[in-house]
């Protein structure tokens, strides 16, 4: 299976998170049906996993730096966070996914994930947006970390899984 992300403007979701007035909510990834968002650039592949993985030498930790070119037609864009999707090949040509360009028709059981930014990033036309994503693994938990490095630097989100993680 492969994961994908794309930068989005999501004012309502961002303001709901901000209303909690704490760091934890800005470092939590949310599964949400994304209403009233603006998709600012095409999705890009983040991580790919092949299962079953029989080798004990291969780690499930991952890192990816992505560069998005925001459409100049949008003018300046406000990035509140990143929408995350997946696409999976279950068996031979049996496919299931929610990545917008290849999503499985009439599938309502899976929703995107939203990775918020503590401070929205304003991206001017023809200025690249660079984001870094890590999938980290510890002895008892798995978590994601993310940050923006261009056009301005954001803090690292969810460092060491301090706010959000999944137990093994």
From TrEMBL:
Keyword S-adenosyl-L-methionine recorded: yes
GO molecular-function term, one example from the UniProt record: protein-arginine N-methyltransferase activity
Record carries keyword Nucleotide-binding: no
Pfam family, one: PRMT5_C
SUPFAM superfamilies: S-adenosyl-L-methionine-dependent methyltransferases (SSF53335)
Annotated keywords: Methyltransferase, S-adenosyl-L-methionine, Transferase
A single GO BP: methylation
Residue intervals of the PRMT5 oligomerisation domain: 1-166
PROSITE patterns on file: SAM_MT_PRMT
GO cellular component: cytosol; nucleus
Signal peptide: none
InterPro entries xref list: Arg_MeTrfase, PRMT5_C, SAM-dependent_MTases_sf
PANTHER family per the UniProt record, alphabetical: PROTEIN ARGININE N-METHYLTRANSFERASE 5 (PTHR10738:SF0)
Protein name: Arginine N-methyltransferase
């Amino acid at each position: 299976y492969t994961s994908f992300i794309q930068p989005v403007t999501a004012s309502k979701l961002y303001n709901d998170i901000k209303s909690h007035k704490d760091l934890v909510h800005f470092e939590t990834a949310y599964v949400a049906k994304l209403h009233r968002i603006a998709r600012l650039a095409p999705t890009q592949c983040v991580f790919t996993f092949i299962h079953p993985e029989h080798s004990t030498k291969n780690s499930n930790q991952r890192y990816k730096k992505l560069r998005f070119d925001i459409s100049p037609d949008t003018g300046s864009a406000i990035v509140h966070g990143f929408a995350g999707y997946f696409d999976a090949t279950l068996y031979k040509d049996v496919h299931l996914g929610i990545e917008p360009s290849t999503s499985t028709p009439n599938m309502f059981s899976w929703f995107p994930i939203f990775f918020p930014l503590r401070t929205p990033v304003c991206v001017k036309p023809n200025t690249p947006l660079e984001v870094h994503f890590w999938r980290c693994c510890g002895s008892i938990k798995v978590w994601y970390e993310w940050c923006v490095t261009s056009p301005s630097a954001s803090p690292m989100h969810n460092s060491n899984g301090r706010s959000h993680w999944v137990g093994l």
